[in-house]
Write the structure tokens for this entry.
Amino acid sequence: MLSTDLFTQIGLGHYLVLSALLFCCGMAGVLLRRNAIVLLMSIELMLNAVNVSFVAFSRYLGQQEGQIMVFFVMTIAAAEAAVGLALAVSIFKRFREVNIRYFEHLKG
Amino acid sequence: MNHPILMATLLLAPFVGFLINGLRYKRHSANLAGVIATTAVVISFISAILLVVDLVGLPPETRVISVKFFEWISVASLKINAGFVLDPVSAIMILVITGVGSLIHLFSIGYMHHDAGAAKYFAYLNLFLFNMLILVLGDSLPVMFVGWEGVGLCSYLLIGFWFTDDQKAAAGMKAFVTNRVGDAAFLLGMFILFLSFGTLTFSEINQLAPTDPTLAWMNPVTLGTLFLFIGATGKSAQIPLYVWLPDAMAGPTPVSALIHAATMVTAGVYMIVRLNPLFLAAPNTMMIIAIIGALTVLLGATIGMTQWDIKKVLAYSTVSQLGYMFLACGVGAFGAAMFHLMTHAFFKALMFLGSGSVIHAMHEEQDIRKMGGLKKYLPITHWTFFFGWVAIIGLPPFAGFFSKDEILAFAFFSPLGHEALWAVGALGATLTAFYMTRLMALTFWGKSRVPKDTHPHESPPTMSIPLIVLGVLSIVGGWIGIPHVIGAILPGHPENFLEHWLHHSIKPIPGLTPFDVTTEWVLMGVSVTLAICSAFVAYHMYVQAPQKPEKVAKAIGPVYKVIYNKYFVDEAYFAGIINPLVKASKGLWYYIDVNFIDKTTYVISDVVRGGGSLVRSLQNGNIQVYAMYISLGLVATLLFLLVR
């Protein structure tokens, strides 16, 4: 179990803690930072935190589905990054900065 | 040909015309729109003729063509079909409507030539004909009511056609509102009939109508027919709801000819004729119809004698002539009512179109004091108007003579009639001869009082051809209903064709004995003599001694004033009904609505707005704050799961 084996053996618990820490870091970035590129990176961090827990569970339960899921997440993350970066580039071209408050100008 | 297809063509041709002109009314020129509209009505007229030819081919006992298109309403025991029925009565109506309608459409091409909204005008006119045909052909009261409302709407649209003029718009509104009063009664009558008979189809109601007349007032038959009659007084301009018709003259003149003389205003008469077995079962209603009809004859005729507007004179004349039709219905002479309806459609449409031609020639001048001597300038209009004149004052052998004298004879001989009703009718005929001669004299004869800068000119052929056709019809239109006494002495002994035609659609008056030949000749002689004398008096007063009318008016001062002001009926309605209503509504508005209802809604809206402002700051458009809410929610969920 998590509490007893924490310092003796690397197991599922370690991975989950790592995943939670990464997720919190990412979330803090998303909530607090204003730079669009940093935001994208933070979102990437959150997605990869989830990937870590997927892989950990997959290994723990001896099932392949979790790892397959990871591929999906990575694909979508790549797509999202492409779109997000494109937006960031166009915002940068116009305002010489990538602060997300400029996205307000997209309002119709 | 196939009856449903013919019936559909008859009904839908004007509707298609309405759609074509109505949807593109800004692009069509007056001529194009007029040709489209007229073609639509002529197609309708041709299908009507084909249908009537088929109808004539059927044996007299079963002379009915009925077409059911689809089931319209089906609720519990109430079954109403979109069904249309052509019988001898509606055959007369559709021929008059589409025939006279075609002529008036043709006339309108010339009359509306200069108007920018001509296409809209023609669209309305076609829509009117569509609704009128539904009214006439519908096989049940609800289908008739659809047309009944439709023609009311078109009447409103066309009276207020020049709506930028406030007075004309108000006239349209007055017509609509007055008609609504009648329509409410029509609906009530329909409900009562449905409650007691369980059906609204004409044929079934007429079969179920009791054969023994009931004298009780609270009887459903009496009440139902009475309410239907009130509905008819609204549409057909009888006392007490006639007030809208004279104002309706604000519309273009061909509209007055088509809607307010020849077709729509006769809808009430037609409805009563349609339900004649039912009305015969309610002698009390019949008595009221006869009395109202007779009073309306006098009212219209007396007011008509004093008016100066050429169209107003004709309008009051129409009110008066409609009174004759109701008088005929009231004494049970439904055939005579239909006969007069038809001849009146010819000569009154003719005279309205003639007045339109005069107004057109006089550059929109309608005051007959500024006319006179127009015979010289408008020969065609004068001569056609002349035949309308001899027809309406009842000179033999013109159309009005036969129909009016048939009504008078029935008023005298029918067990439902009375000598007094005949006397009122004869007096009405005398007054009619007077005011129509006055109109002729002031407009066409005598010295010209035309202002010097006006140069009257004869109208184009599109306007004079309809006048000529209607003029011929005003001469020969009465020959289909020659009474027996006259037929007996004529070479070839022509029969009363109309009576045979309507024989199976109209129930005979119970207890009617054959007319006494000598008395009938005397009655006829008296009414014709009276009319001729009165026409001569009017001719003398207005052509030979033009200063006399003023003296007479002065001699009977107060009486003249009352009649000239139309018996102050409009003023009485305003003082007794409209102003109290307006005042009460204003009171409700100022005190109840503003203080109570508005305040309540304000309080409710303030509460909602206050509540909203509390949470408004939560939705500020900042995505990161939203993400924060999501995260907080997630944390809260996790905490909840842990604590649990």
